[in-house]
Amino acid sequence: EAALFIVATPIGNLADIGVRALYVLSLVDRIAAEDTRNTQHMLTRYDIDKPVLAVHEHNEHEAAARVIEHLRAGERVAYVSDAGTPGISDPGARLVDAVRAANLPVIPLPGASAVTTALSVAGAWAQTFTFIGFLPTKARQRDDAIRALASSEPALVFYEAPHRVVDTVRALAQGLGAERKILIARELTKLHEALHVCPLAEGPAFLEADPNRQRGEFVLVVEGRAPDRDGDDAHLHDTLLVTLLDAL
Ligand code: SAM
Known about the structure:
The protein has helices at residues 19-27, 36-45, 60-72, 93-101, 114-119, 139-149, 165-176, 203-208, 230-247, and strands spanning 3-7, 30-33, 52-54, 76-80, 106-109, 129-134, 155-160, 181-186, 194-199, 218-222. It is of the alpha/beta class. It comes from Pararobbsia silviterrae. Residues 4-202 form the Tetrapyrrole methylase domain.
């Protein structure tokens, strides 16, 4: 039966593909992909040979129309992004909107994502979190965005590119406070995977101590703002009550 399958693929280690993902990729009539070359490469590694159709930012509209045509013709179509879960700092969401608006089924196939992979090793301080993804690239807008996040109690999860990671960690330390913990997760599931937890203030020096520490792909998880302690709240309420009583 016709359906669009949104299929998560590995974020590095190709062995992380799911059994169901492999099954669906080898069963569908066609695979829509963010980057056809990358996807062909991955499919070759899994021994899957299917027609691949490009769906990326610049042709989203007409590509979605083509996918819908294929689905209406009774085909099963899979969509994959370059790495990880489609729709997570990746294209795919507009295709989902268009296919659902056409009243055709959309089926998720879960799998790797850099955000959940990093969070799985962050620890207890990141149990509640807000996924931010990429910050703006211009310093001014980046700093404004960081300021707007300063009061968040949930931990904050960022994606960052290697050439910006030092500046971003420095800006996070300035905007959020030097004491908060940061997990710097680099090259997850890959050969040079590295995890480091330290106070935000120490992040830039850690990264700068060795150029290799700035290479590859990064997830940054930053501790949220410490919650107001109950005692402080109670104190505030007492003060308010006294003020109100005084006013009577
Ligand atoms: N859709 C992907 C997902 O589900 O995680 C994210 C795609 S986004 C365009 C690429 C960014 O994700 C990278 O710049 C990096 O911040 C993060 N990322 C992807 N793979 C990673 C890995 N193996 N290790 C660390 N970060 C990774």
